[in-house]
Each structure stands twice: as C-alpha cells, then as structure tokens.
Design goal:
4 domains; Immunoglobulin-like; 50 strands; disordered N terminus; five-stranded parallel sheet; mainly beta; single chain; 6% helix; 2 helices; 584 residues; Leucine-rich repeat, LRR (right-handed beta-alpha superhelix)
C-alpha cells in the first residue's frame, strides 16, 4: 500500500514539472520591478517570441504598467497583446518596434508617455482609450503605416510632433474636448488630406502642419484668436483654409509660401479677407448660419419637450444638430440651463440627474449667434397609454373616449389629443370627439392620445364615421329631375304612371327612403317610388331619408291630359319684308 502511494506521488510530481517549468519560463521572458503598491512594472523583454502576450500577473503580482523603454528596439516583434489592468504605458515603451503590426492599448490605460510608439513603422491601427487627456510629445511619431487612429473624447492635448510623420492616415476626427495642438503636431505627414479643428481648440503650435504634402483642406477652430507663422509651410497641395471671424490676428510669415493653389475662405471684412488681399490669394466669402435644428435620431426635435425617465436604467438621450446653410463649422456648442437636473456634453448627449425641467441650447459656433433649444423633463415617465370607446359613429354625433395611463407612479398622466382627420372627427382636450355635420364618405379616423411628459408614449383608437344624408336627388323614368322640379303624368296615355328613383347624398350614406303622396286621390306612390296618376290635379311626393338625418325632398306631380301633338297651319312661303299669320 505504501509502495502504491509512493508511485502515485512520483507520477504527480512528473506531471507537474512541465507546468511549473512553463510558468517559470514565461515569467523569465519579462523583467519587472515592483512599485510602491506591490504591482509589477515590466522593465524589459528577453524572450524570443515574435508575438508576445503580456500576462495579467508576474510571480503573483498584478501587472499595471509598461515601464520606460521596456520593449524599445525589439525589431522582431510583430504583435504585442497587453492585458486589461494596465494603467500606464511609459516613455519610449515600444519605441523602434519597427515590425510590430498590432499593439492593443487596453481600455484601462490612463497615461501614455512621450515617444511611446515612435518609429513603429508597421503599426496599422490604434485606439487611444477614454480617460486619457493628453498625447504627450511624439507618441506616434513616424508611424508610417498607421491607417486607423481613434482618439478619445476626453483628449485635451496633442503634444509636439505626436502625430507627425503619419503617411497612411487619410482621415482623423479630433475630439471636441481638444484644447491644444502642439508644435509640428501633424508635420511631415503624407496621408492626411482634410482636417476640421474643433471649436474647443484655442492654441495651435508653430509649424503644426509643416510638410503635410497631401493636405488639401483645413477648417480652423472658432476658439482661436490668432495664428502663428509657418502653420502651413511645405503644404504644396493645400487648396482651402477656412478662417473663422474670431481670428483677429494672422501672422502671414511663411503661411502659404509653399501653397500655390490655396484659397482663403472667411467672412467679408474679416482678418482673413485682409490677409488674403495682402498676400494676393483668392478669397471666398462664407455665408453665416441662419438656422439651427436639434435632431433626435432623424426627428426634428427643435422646440419640443423630451423626457428622461428616472425609473429607467437608461437616463441619456443622444441629440445632434443640423445647421443651414452649409458651413465649414457645422458643429454647435451645447449648454444646459440647469445642469444639475439635465446636463449635456460636447456631443449632444443629455443625461438626466434629478427630477425637474431644463432647457438645452445648441448655439452655432460660426459667430452668427443663431441657436435652437429643446425642453427636457426628468421625471417618472409614462410608459403606456390605452384609449377605449365606441368604434363606430355617425355624422353630427359625439363620442367620449376613456384613457388609461401606466404606470400608476408616473408623475404626469395628462395627455394631448390629435385626430388624423380633424375635418371629419375633431377631438377636444377632454377627449370628447365630435363628428362633422357633413361627412362625404365612410371614413376611418385615428384618434391619438399622447403623454405630455415628453416620453413620446401614445395610444391610438380607430373610429369609423358614417355619413348622414344631406340631400336627395331624383330620376323619373331614368331622367334627372331638377330640385323642386315638376313631374307630369298623362291620363290620356295607356299607362299613366312614372317610376321614381331616389339617390341619397352622399353615396356612402344609407340609401333607404320613404315615399309619401300629399293627395292619394290624385296620385299614389308605392314603397319603391312607383307613382300612379288617378285623376286631374297636383300632388306633392315627399321623400324622407331613413338614416336619422331628417333630410327630406319634395317634388310636384301634375296629372292631366297632356298634349300629344301640335299642328301648325298657314302659308309655307313669305315675301321678303312681309309677314304671315300661323295657327296651331
């Protein structure tokens, strides 16, 4: 028994050796030190792998930082995977990793040091995590192959040369929190063709775009008041630069000396026009913005009330703005009149904080002073509206609708009413619907009760409205009879009768009518409108609509021996200028 146990222990030991050796070998590929918190800071890599995955822990210590120059000059590395939990990528951490195609930056990173990815020629894409406020100097300098770069909304500073020498990056969206662009920040790049500087930027360093060979269009920030010389020196393809009215001072030194195709776009009478005239550069006037619209999705929400539900986990609404006419500065500045109730960020995201109402204002940034606003109601919102009541009615009738609103704890249960056909069926504030006196045809009307708390919740109710008669037309033996016309019956004929056919107006109304003669001894009328003449005289035939409208029509019937032929006698010739007498 003891021998069996000993053999089992030996087998377990043999099986465990490779696992322990592998773990030790992996740890040995990384040099690290411990910071004051006892977390591991990687200081070097001595392994031979070309694709490296940095572990979450080393020797039981959580890895939280890539130290200064830890992977610098590792030319053979093609892929580097960093774990979540990394907080800092220090200065020159991956500098000169010329073959690295991919280096992920975990969302936990809050600091990227200067030169961190400098000369990573093969790096294809990078996403800088939210929370980082500054790209220090030369972070992505000479990343020639970088095709995709996503900057965080939190970014406020782009350091000197931080995005210089990017030959493959064709487009870049700068965040709206950005304030400072450093010296030569975009210099010597061959990829970027167009760039819009957000209105938050107040300072652009000297030679920021120097040597950007393919740059064609730049829109400068409305937050700037002056430009430094050399800003666009060495930009031979530059065609269009838009200057806002805020820029009062433009240093012309080496501004466009290398840009033979450039035109200056700006407002009439601005410093931009003065500079363009002085440098003999074409000037293109910009039209001021005249209108701002606030959109919620594709809906124009300008001037409306929108709700944020305190009882919901989602307490945000994403708005956008649209300006007209088109402008180089289509963005807006967002502000809330009561940010403690509902705040708004630079991207139009409104967040409900506590119960109450706030006004959100979107102001054009081109200096026109044009703005738009919406109202935000932060409350326990309505989630459902149900409308009940009769589904059929006739013209000139009334209908009372009932509304049920949920949940019970909704702060505002009031609704507003609308009708899809208000000319047929109108609805009052209290939910009482009234049909028009004249309804031309059977009409299905949708009545809508919408919550007034900004939730956008509504309930519909369909009502079919039937017309009532408002006229009766008549035919006698298939011939139309004029209103209040007279119908003749010939007693001397072999058949002193006439068939009357009634048509109730409108055609969709009930067509049933009753017939009545005022003098049955002279003329009788059947239920089908068949009139028989009995003796000479006159009788009134009255038709009454049977739909409850009270509409009637009366026609006169004359019963007599009617003339069947008229014979005219007299000369059949007359001399010119003479007259003759004819007899009938």
């Amino acid at each position: 028994m003891k021998k069996s146990v000993s053999i089992l222990l030996m087998l377990l030991a043999i099986l465990l050796v490779p696992i322990l050796a592998w773990a030790t070998q992996a740890d040995a590929s990384f040099k690290f030190s411990l910071d004051a918190s006892g977390d591991a800071v990687i200081t070097g890599y001595v392994g031979s792998a070309i694709d490296v995955t940095i572990p979450e822990t080393l020797a039981g210590h959580r890895v939280t930082a890539i130290g200064e120059a830890a992977f610098m000059n590792k030319d053979t590395l093609t892929g580097i995977s960093l774990p979540d939990g990394i907080l800092s990528i220090d200065r020159s951490a991956f500098k000169n990793c010329r073959s690295a195609v991919s280096i992920n930056i975990p969302i936990t990173v809050r600091k990227i040091g200067a030169n961190a990815f400098e000369n990573c020629f093969s790096l294809v894409g990078a996403t800088v995590p939210e929370g980082i406020t500054a790209l220090e100097n030369r972070v992505f300098l000479n990343c020639h192959g970088l095709q995709r770069l996503t900057l965080p909304r939190s970014l406020e500073t782009i350091g000197d040369g931080s995005l210089a020498g990017l030959h493959s990056l064709k487009e870049l969206e700068l965040p709206k929190a950005l304030r400072t662009i450093g010296l030569g920040a975009f210099a010597s790049g061959k990829g970027l063709e167009s760039l819009v500087i957000p209105s938050s930027v107040t300072d652009i360093g000297y030679s920021a775009f120097h040597g950007s060979e393919n740059l064609k269009r730049v829109v400068l920030s409305t937050g700037m008041q002056e430009t430094l010389g050399g800003l666009f020196h060495g930009c031979p393809d530059l065609e269009e630069v838009s200057f806002p009215d805020n820029i009062r001072r433009i240093d012309p030194g080496m501004l466009f000396t290398s840009s033979p195709k450039v035109s200056v776009h700006g407002f009439v009478g601005s410093a931009a026009q003065v500079t363009a005239n002085a440098l003999r550069i074409p000037f293109v006037p910009i039209e001021s913005i005249r209108e701002v619209k606030i959109l919620l999705g594709n809906e124009n929400a300008t001037g409306q009330l929108k709700g944020i539900d305190l009882s919901s986990a989602q307490k945000e609404l994403q708005f956008s703005a649209q300006v007209s006419p088109d402008s180089p500065w289509p963005g807006v500045d967002w502000k809330s009149t009561a940010p403690t109730i509902a705040g708004v960020d630079a991207y139009g995201v409104v967040t409900g904080n506590k119960s109450g109402k706030a006004t959100i204002v979107a102001s054009a940034v081109d200096g026109s002073g044009v703005s738009a606003q919406i109202q935000i109601n932060v409350a326990n919102l309505v989630k459902g509206v149900t409308v009940s009541g009769e589904t059929e009615m006739k013209a000139n009738q009334n209908l009372v609708l009932t509304v049920a609103v949920v949940p019970e704890q909704a702060d505002n249960k009031q609704v507003s009413w609308t009708s899809s056909h208000p000319d047929i069926l109108s609805v009052a504030k209290n939910g009482k619907a009234a049909a028009a006196k004249r309804v031309p045809a059977i009409t299905i009307v949708t009545l809508t009760a919408q919550a007034t708390d900004g939730s956008g919740v509504s309930g519909n109710h369909e009502v079919t409205v039937y017309p009532l008669a408002y006229g009766i037309s008549l035919k006698a033996n298939d011939r139309p009879v004029e209103e209040k016309g007279t119908i003749g019956i010939d007693l001397s004929s072999g058949d002193p009768t006439v068939q009357l056919v009634a048509a109730v107006i409108p055609a969709d109304a009930m067509q049933d009518v009753t017939w009545k003669s005022s003098a049955n001894r002279i003329a009788t009328v059947s239920e089908t409108g068949f009139v028989a003449g009995l003796k000479k005289g006159s009788a009134n035939i009255t038709l009454s609509a049977q739909d409850g409208s009270g509409i009637k029509a009366t026609y006169k019937v004359n019963v007599s021996n009617l003339v069947s032929e008229i014979v005219i006698t007299g000369s059949d010739a007359v001399a010119s200028g003479k007259s003759i007498t004819l007899k009938a």
